[in-house]
Design goal:
Elements (H helix, E strand, L loop, with lengths): L8 E4 H11 L11 E7 L2 E10 L3 E6 L7 E8 L2 E8 L6 E7 L1 H15 E3 L5 E5 L1 H10 L4 E2 L2 E5 H4 L2 E4 L7 E5 L11 E5 L2 E7 L4 E5 L1 H14 L2 H14 L13
Parallel strand pairs: 2-11
Antiparallel strand pairs: 1-12, 2-3, 3-4, 4-5, 5-6, 6-7, 8-16, 9-13, 10-11, 14-15, 15-16
Helix pairs in contact: 1-5, 2-5
Length: about 250
């Protein structure tokens, strides 16, 4: 291995989670009940949101006094995926609607994934986390539930894993093809001073992502489901809304 390929690199925890969702077939698992999420910084809540199942899709919204009741709905019906944003304070309430067939999104994702598929030599190697490091990461991502909501520290999801392949106590070298027998493992390689996350597709080809490519693929999916438009609409609403919300009027009886 060249010296430039042993220089420690950093990979964002969010990117690891995104690639894991994309490659490990964890998307699309049935959500059985509403989830309330609270994102925190140094223990203080900064963003509250919820994600709830519907009969044909899901409902997502922020809980913020300056936003009001604005939610995103996505559902599958009559062979099409439909998304809309509803702002109960407006008339008409629906401010965004989109309808598309799954094959449109599928072709976009397939095109990206095809570019990420690369051949590999039978003896090509990559590195995986040692069990102790993996347990530490899993423990950090085991978010607690407080007052009925999952508390997610932004310091964690915006954090990173230091990839120092010289540290044999944290990283183990494996042949990429051996990962076919390790269904829950992602591996990393550093080539030309650049870090890649890899996962074999079969005994000849592998998926090979940079962190930026993983994030771009995840954004593509979220944008199709309406999260991009939702974020833009809520941001504009926050910019227009007053900084403080007056308390409700009190009427003496």
């Amino acid at each position: 291995m060249r010296s430039q390929d042993t220089v420690p690199q950093r990979v964002g925890i969010a990117a690891v989670l995104q690639v894991s969702e994309i490659l490990m077939d964890r998307r699309g698992k049935t959500m059985s009940e509403r989830m309330d999420l609270v994102y925190t910084i140094q223990g203080e809540p900064v963003v509250r949101c919820f994600l709830a199942p519907t009969t044909e899709g899901f409902l997502f919204g922020l809980s913020h006094p300056r936003v009001g009741d604005i939610h995103l709905t996505a559902f599958f019906k009559d062979g099409k995926i439909r998304t809309h944003i509803k702002d109960s304070a407006r008339n008409p309430a629906y401010v965004h609607d989109r309808t598309f067939t799954p094959d449109i999104l599928g072709r976009r994702i397939e095109g990206r994934m095809r570019r990420f598929m690369k051949p590999y030599h039978p003896n090509m190697v990559a590195w995986i986390m040692r069990p102790a490091l993996k347990r530490r990461l899993i423990a950090a991502l085991d978010f607690p539930t407080q007052n009925g909501a999952i508390s997610i520290p932004l310091e964690v999801v915006r954090g990173y894993v230091l990839v120092n392949l010289r540290n044999k106590r944290r990283w183990r070298r494996v042949r990429i093809r051996d990962l076919l027998e390790m269904p829950d493992e992602l591996a990393v390689r550093i080539e030309g001073g650049r870090l890649y996350i890899v996962r074999p597709f079969d005994d000849r080809n592998m998926f090979k992502f940079t962190e930026g490519q993983a994030q771009a693929l995840n954004r593509l999916l979220l944008d199709y489901l309406g999260f991009g438009e939702y974020g833009n609409y809520v941001s504009a609403k926050l910019a227009e809304a007053p900084r403080s919300v007056p308390p409700p009027a009190r009427h003496e009886g």
